[in-house]
Amino acid sequence: MNVPWLTLVIVIPVGAALLLQVVPRNLTAAVKGVTLLATAAVAVIVGVLVAMLPHTVGSDQPLTFHYEETHAWIPGIGASYHLGLDGLSAWLLALNAGVFLLGALAVSRRSTERLRFYCTLLLLTEAATAGVLLAADLLLFYLFWEGMLVPLYFLLSNYGGEKRGPATLKFILYTVAGSLLMLLSIIWLYVNSGARSFDLETLITSSGPAQAVIVIPGIHVPTFTPQELVFIGFALAFAIKLPLVPFHTWLPDLYEACPPAALVFFAGIVSKLGAYGFIRFGLTLFPEPVNHFKWFLAGVAVLSIIYGALMALSERDIKRIVAYASISHLGFVALGIFSLTQNGVNGSIIQMINHGIIISALFLIVGFIEARTGTRDRRQIAGLERRMPWLYAFFLVATLAALGMPGMNGFVGEFTIMLGAFQLNWLYAVLAGGGVVLACWYMLRLHQGLMHGPPAALVERVRDIRMGEGLLLAPLAALMIFLGVYPRPVGDLARPAVTQYVARATGTPVLPAVYS
Amino acid sequence: MLAQAVPIVPLVTPSAKDLLGLLPELILGGGFVVLMLLDLVVPARRRAWLAAFAFLFIAASFGACMWGWFDSGSGRALYFGSIAYDKYAMFINAVLLISAALVVIISPQYLNRRGLHYGEYYALILAATTGMMLLAGAMSLMVIFLAIELLSVSLYILSGFSRHEERSQEAALKYLLLGGFASGFLLFGMALVYGETGHTQLQQIEAALRVSTNVDPLLLAGVILIFIGLAFKASLVPFHTWTPDVYQGAPTSVTTFMSVATKVAAFAVMVRVFTYTFPAVYAHWQAIVFLVAIASMLVGNIAALTQTSVKRMLAYSGIAQAGYILIGVAVSPSEPLGTIGVLYYLAAYAVTNIGAFAVITVMAGRGEDLDSYAGLRGLAYRRPYVAAAMGLFLLSLGGFPPTAGFFGKFFVFAAAIKSGQTSLALWGIATSAVSVFYYLRVALLMYQRPAADQPEYQWSRSTFGGSAVLLATTAGTLVLGILVTLVYSAAAAAQGALLPVAAG
Fold first, then answer.
1. Do A150 and B392 touch (CB under 8 A)?
2. Max Cα distance, chain B (Å)
3. Which ipTM score applies to this complex?
């Protein structure tokens, strides 16, 4: 029998969310149990799927999906329910399952006020993000991409911190503005493809867009070809979600207002989706425009790296420091993609996974510190080392991973990306290298400031993390070290797809990979 | 072209089959009479019975519609070509009847609290719905005018239903005066079109226009005047000025009905008249419809930004939504996706907007309407489900997937791009991004705790009827956003069976 595994990955969380509605809301154990069971079931399925994913070697198809499912959805306009998993999305899907499982575990007993609604939203978000990663039909992709905002909006407006109102609004407005342009581009692609289909594979192979002309009465856009304009629509949506400077301003505010338990999956997966979109849709549908704009886009990525790092240096709020560090790290991801080299893109995929692991851990740690000291001002906290030895150990691992120490997972991705950046232009690589130096500075300063020295007044009576909290951090720390010394599995799966994409985009034979 | 001599039609009585084709309208019209009589015998305390009867009539009419949808004998013109018995009319009828049913369900509780529970209310709702259904099927200028008057007069009375409230009276008067003007424009336009073509029946007008070679300015004046008359009913800019005042002044349950059903009926007839009767002169009316669509999107969305009254905000939002729907009319008549988009959008708008208005109807406290933004503050803490539903409706109005509103917008934008009018879609996209701001501002208010010195609004208890309506509209919003084919294929079938085309 053919089991629709990928549909299950989406349907199980939705089903669990519906099931939660009939569980009495004061039975918190049952609510949490259902949530955990659902996320764990998804994690197991995804784990098996990824482990059994066939390695595709030497295929000349632009996309090679596995476990494919295709059903008619809106046959009248050629939209289909088409899901597929390949080397590019496999590890991201695993990351997705992981961070949501972690998010479900991190739901604290103290936030039992409306726990059921929280768990419902968490599950719905998981379904939407999984859908984004699995969709092989542009309309379906857009549905998940934009639909993801609905549970996120309820999550932030219900459970956010002090400034959640403006922060949520800013986030949604930014994202919607970008997404709507993408929608326009999607419709344009559909109309001009000749195939009258939203299917990604069909759109890639149909040769329509190049000749068609965009008609905007009164506006003449001589410098861009239609295809480039359409790419800009996509690029804006992804750049905002990623986010790249200057579209990043929603992120620090939002991360500040976001409840720590939700940040695990918010920072863990949602921001990676922008990068995923760039690779999956940008590189495949718009090879020429990406190649045309790569200098500019890589420059923006470098700007994000430096700007994020400098802002992280100037902040006092530890949550915002980590938020800006995240912008800086995602700049690396973008740099790798736009270097348009096999190393760079492969490095980006590795970095996405690693960043998801690192940032989840960092935000968990920040949440623990804030819950115990009652402040996020880094100057009011010192000497946690003696009070919280366990947290100290985990934080040390996460810090070293975040600043890219060799032997930790952060290094692998950044190093591979830098290789790619060098192949594009040495200057970009040097500037990005400056970002690594800055990362050492702000991460070590943060770590030392919080951990060492005589305990500050607020720190006097704090207690170390509990066993449960430690168990949240332990797998993350283990992964940081494991993927630091043995990154092959992540790199290998994605390489065939990446080779294809890069070859299509640059139109040149692919340089041999220096590092897997 | 000169008017030809009108042939003398021998007087024949329409066949019984014609009567059968009009069954949905007849049932509802009969319901109107029966309810007026029943009101005399039902004691004042038992007026909810009237609502139940009204619901029964609506349900029966809906059943007749369904029968008409599947009837193989449909797809013909009744009464010598004045009324269409086609899937298009049945689609619109179904949307109208569902809207009316939902409004009737939430009305008794609201009217009781407001002290407005009079029996005429239900009769008038049925009368207005009958008019709208006739409008959806109208294939003659005369029937269009009669149907518009039937629905308008009923709505004039309904909007002034809160007799002791000045604002409601003002609303009724304003609506009556401006509506009278609009009817005048409409009638004048019809007269000009008749004068030019010599026909009042759409099929014949279409045929006459198709063969004519030169376009007379008077004909164009007629076409544009008809558009103005219909644009008034659909509250399109610049004929929208009555909308916020009337929506705010009228009792909320009436606004719920009016904001949705009138628009559905007006767009239904607009598509039949403009896309399918006047395609020959499309080049001449296109620019005006185009500009009106852009103006509506801009004015509606920008004016909605500064509102502090929920009803006014939804009124301006409705103006903007009308602008989006008009995109489907403005695109080339040869593009079927335009009409399909209009139909889908209307269905989506109906469930979503009724949901949003139903929330402020069923949550209204004793005495006064729930209208100011402050009245929604903190709703999520007292009525989490209602607040979540309202949030969903607002997201749908803002066009987020997977809700109905997204696919409404998607289809009209796709139609615009497909027929080469990318700029219309660009305007739509830009204004949609603006609209998210005010929809979410209201939605976020519900999740803010009320200020300490400010008393919380006294929301009413949820009732069975209110909850049922909210549940139904929530489900509808999601179904139209996920299981798109259900309504899409119906809309495509309705578009395919639209009569003037079939006759051509």
1. yes
2. 77
3. 0.86
